[in-house]
Amino acid sequence: MNRYLALYKIVEVGSFTKAADLLGYTQSGISQMIQSLEDELSLKLLLRSRTGVKLTPEGEELYPYILKTASSYRAMIEKSKEIKGLESGTIRIGTISSISCHWLPHMIKEFQTIYPNVQFILHQGDYTTIPEWIKSGEVDFGFINPAAVSGLETIALKDGELLAVLPKKHHLAKESVITLKQLVTEPFLLLEEGTLSEPLEAFHVQNLHPNIKMCIHDDYSILSMIEEGLGISILPELVMRRVSYDVAKIPIDPPVTRTIGIAFNNIKTIPIASRYFIDYLEEHIPD
Q1: What's the first-to-final CA gap in the chain, in angstroms?
Q2: How many Å apart are CA 95 and CA 86, to the nearest integer?
Q3: Would you say the C-alpha torsion 213, 215, 219, 224 has a positive or negative sign?
Q4: What pLDDT score was predicted for residue 82?
Q5: What CATH number should be reported for the domain whose range is 1-85?
Q6: What class does CATH assign to 159-259?
Q7: pTM of the complete model
Q8: Nearest 5°: CA angle at 160, between 149 and 280?
Q9: Where, residue-wise, is CATH 3.40.190.10 in the chain?
Q10: Could you tell me the CA-to-CA distances from 263 to 42, 95, 124, 136, 274 in Å, in that order?
Q11: Regarding predicted confidence, which is higher, 1 or 226?
Q12: What is the mean pLDDT of the chain?
């Protein structure tokens, strides 16, 4: 089983040396493990180059099965820890930037005061990549809008407001509230979040079609562009907390909201440390 875990770690970090350090092996030891696995399967799984390590075409086909095998083994180990009491474990989370910036730091800190030996691995993605990671076993659970996924169990945690964000000198910047109809002709900077966009859904409900000028994957890049007067956007209120961008943020009438929740394959089979953290999240969601 260690060979599968070694292969997973090599692919994750893109290096035999880094994987060996993280897993506590020598580089020659981890190389021998991969060679042994390749000999057993009679297939070449990895290719080394100056830019790092990547899977061969044959390795790409087998990798989902290797991921599931490693994930099942890890779940078994975590279950044995549950029986003995939660002393350690690794919690792997798929998350969006607003959650990783504003919710998780404090919650991880507080959780680790109770379980100091538990480790966290965060994978930042969107409404498309996070469900894929959950289904493949790359993460234990992920933060998403439950409406964006299918074939997974979900728990809704909290509804949050979205705000119109405009340059400070924009002619609508002094409004106390704003409508989507007022925004529809403005150059719109769309936060690309994958399969679901709450702002686009809100426009479509009113049969409006925003003037999309750019699709950008990072909300803080959008704020920088708004500050420079390149357009307007609609962003989660959570994103706007503790930011220093010189922009106007205005409530929308009627309000536009999003639901933040978590998704997972099966609550009974995910690692115990992640189950404990999910329980903690449900009880301690920030206001």
Answers
A1: 43
A2: 24
A3: negative
A4: 64
A5: 1.10.10.10
A6: alpha beta
A7: 0.69
A8: 75
A9: 159-259
A10: 37, 11, 15, 13, 12
A11: 226
A12: 89
Question: Are 52 and 39 in contact, with CB atoms under 8 Å apart?
Answer: no
Q: Would you state the structure tokens that stand for residue 129, as one six-digit string?
A: 């990549």
- 3-class SS letters over 131-162: HHHHHHCCCCEEEECHHHCCCCEEEEEEEEEE
Query: Tell me, what amino acid is at 227?
Result: E
Partners of 249 in the β-ladder: 165
Work out the average pLDDT over 137-163. Answer: 93
Q: Token pair of 151, please?
A: 């074939």
Task: Please report, for residues 46, 49, 220, 221, the alpha-carbon distance to residue 84 in angstroms, rounded to integers and kept in the order given.
Answer: 37, 43, 44, 46
Q: Report d(CA 167, CA 111) in Å as an integer.
A: 39
pLDDT: which is higher, 140 or 2: 140
Quote the CA–CA distance of 165 and 227 in Å, as a whole number.
9
Dihedral angle of Cα 199, 201, 203, 209, to the nearest 10 degrees: 100
pLDDT of residue 232: 97
As a whole number of angstroms, the distance between CA 97 and CA 43 comes to 39
- Which is more confident, 249 or 220? 249
**Distance between CA atoms of 278 and 107, rounded to whole angstroms?**
11
Q: Do 178 and 164 contact (CB within 8 A), yes or no?
A: yes
Question: Which residue's structure tokens are 């409404």?
Answer: 127
Structure-token pair, residue 224: 């920088």
Write the pLDDT tens digit of every residue in 71-118: 787 778 777 766 565 667 889 999 998 899 889 999 999 999 988 889
Q: Can you tell me whether residue 250 is helix, strand or coil? A: strand
Residues of the chain with CATH 1.10.10.10: 1-85
Write the DSSP assignment of 68-96 as a string of letters.
Answer: HHHHHHHHHHHHHHHHH----EEEEEEE-
